[in-house]
Design a protein that fits this description.
Helix content: 25-40%
Number of strands: 8
Shape: globular
Largest sheet: 5 strands, antiparallel
Strand content: 35-45%
Length: 132
Amino acid sequence: MTWPALHVSRSVDADVAAVARIAGDPEKLPLWAAGLSTGIRRESGRWIADSPMGVVEVAFTGPIESGILDHDVTLPDGTVVHNPLRVLRNDAGSEIVFTLFQRTGMTDEEFRADARLIEADLARLAALVEGR
């Protein structure tokens, strides 16, 4: 079985390494990933974030330096959600691509709302990377 998927992307005027340095730094998540983290801290070697869903754990699966910013988010109930996030070379810049899955039980409206939140997150990330 597979879920419906949507690839949300944003072009950025910076190379893959520059994007990965910012996007792959858990301490910088609150600066751009509002849908995930309003605050983050390191506890016992794990990244713990305060999110709208409650306290979650965030773990990048990498390799980050290659632009693979996939991350697993462990929800308060123990469910682990895998979030594919890639940074691809796009001429002299990059393309940031987040894959959103419409998981079982998610309505079409919830799926569209999540996509809008991700678009806003990627816009904040692009501005941060570009120094705007």
